DNA sequence: CTTTAAGCCTGCAGGC
DNA sequence: TGCCTGCAGGCTTAAA
């Protein structure tokens, strides 16, 4: 559920309390996440100074002095909670860090779809999990033309294509649905037919949706909260996601508009307005 | 090459 | 109250 805006928010929270600080203690309490955590993770973290952060798609990279980066993915239910050093242990706390100034960072992930790995900072992007990722949607270089190139030859739906991290990195179910609604494109449209002005419009709406969501601290749904415990509030700005049966704001007074509909594509829920989205 | 399905995992909501 | 079932979905792997 953490998608690009949630990961960006979490990363900024980590940055605020970790950047420039030394990790005085690191504890790994459970190593069987999505994959087995790397041997020596706690040892590598203990005593290291955090020099910087970067996000790539839904992945966070925390750079340590000495040339190692920690690659973190929150999976479906991963959370970071920041507190003080004497805080109580919460359920599903798989890794904890304590800084030189008494900040305690807990990685919590009930479903354990998340992952943590170590990667040399030089060549971070060659890591197996990052190597195949598509362009960053908020980069200047992510244009309608580039997206249309990515979609060329794809016979699957635009919904499935945008959810594919090799096409564009960082979108998940919620933001794909919202961006397609804003761009008035049907999620059922064949991906390779999204070209020209339509692709340009879609890129514009993807960027705007993500930027607004980041500004709102992400969307809080079930597990997700910001590292300081605050709720994100972009879920109040959703126009279609989880709004099945409600009227479509874009079809005011149109009698043939039956409102927001939920369909299943590739086993996932899609929400859209069949009248307005083409 | 692209596309599809299964499996991983736990918490929660809804039905009875 | 409590049990059962289905759903949530990012990602990889294997198969078509």
Polypeptide structure, described:
- This protein has helices spanning 4-18, 41-45, 128-131, 144-151, 158-163, 173-182, 196-215, and strands at 23-28, 50-56, 59-64, 68-73, 79-84, 93-99, 103-108, 115-120, 261-265, 268-272.
- It has 278 residues and is an alpha+beta fold.
- The chain folds into two domains: 4-126, MutM-like, N-terminal (N-terminal domain of MutM-like DNA repair proteins), CATH 3.20.190; 144-272, Helicase, Ruva Protein, domain 3 (Orthogonal Bundle).
- Strands 1-6-7-5 form a four-stranded antiparallel beta sheet.
- α4 (144-151) crosses α7 (196-215).
- The structure holds a DNA duplex (16 and 16 nucleotides).
Short synopsis of the structure:
Helices cover 24% and strands 22% of the residues.
State the shape. elongated
The CATH topology of the largest domain, please? Helicase, Ruva Protein, domain 3
Can you list the strand order of the major beta sheet? 1-6-7-5
Radius of gyration: 20 Å
Q: Work out the number of β strands.
A: 10
Tell me, rounded to a whole number, the average pLDDT. Answer: 91
Terminal CA distance: 27 Å
How is the topology of this model organized?
Blueprint: H1 4-18, E1 23-28, H2 41-45, E2 50-56, E3 59-64, E4 68-73, E5 79-84, E6 93-99, E7 103-108, E8 115-120, H3 128-131, H4 144-151, H5 158-163, H6 173-182, H7 196-215, E9 261-265, E10 268-272
Antiparallel strand pairs: 1-6, 2-3, 3-4, 4-8, 5-7, 6-7, 9-10
The structure holds a DNA duplex (16 and 16 nucleotides).
């Amino acid at each position: 559920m953490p998608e690009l805006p949630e990961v960006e928010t979490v990363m900024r929270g980590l940055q605020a309390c970790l950047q420039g600080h030394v990790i005085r203690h690191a504890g790994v309490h459970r190593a069987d996440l999505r994959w087995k955590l790397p041997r020596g993770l706690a040892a590598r973290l203990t005593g290291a100074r955090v020099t910087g952060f970067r996000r790539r798609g839904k992945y966070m990279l925390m750079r340590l002095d000495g040339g190692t980066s920690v690659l973190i993915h929150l999976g479906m239910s991963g959370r970071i909670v920041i507190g003080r050093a004497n805080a109580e242990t919460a359920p599903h706390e798989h890794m904890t860090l304590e800084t030189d100034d008494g900040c305690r960072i807990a990685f919590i992930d009930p479903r354990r779809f998340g992952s943590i790995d170590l990667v040399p900072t030089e060549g971070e992007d060659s890591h197996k999990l990052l190597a195949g990722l598509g362009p960053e949607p908020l980069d200047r270089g992510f244009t309608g033309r580039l997206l249309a190139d990515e979609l060329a030859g794809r016979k699957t739906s635009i919904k499935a294509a945008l959810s594919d991290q090799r096409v564009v990195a960082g979108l998940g179910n919620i933001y794909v649905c919202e961006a397609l609604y804003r761009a008035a494109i049907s999620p059922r449209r064949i991906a390779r037919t999204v070209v020209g002005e339509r692709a340009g419009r879609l890129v514009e709406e993807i960027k705007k949706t993500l930027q607004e969501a980041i500004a709102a601290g992400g969307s809080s749904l079930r597990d997700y909260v910001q590292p300081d415990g605050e709720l994100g509030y972009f879920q109040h700005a959703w126009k279609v996601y989880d709004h099945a049966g409600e009227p479509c704001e874009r079809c005011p007074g149109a009698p043939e508009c039956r409102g927001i509909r939920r369909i299943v594509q590739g086993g996932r829920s899609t929400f859209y307005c069949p009248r307005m989205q083409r």
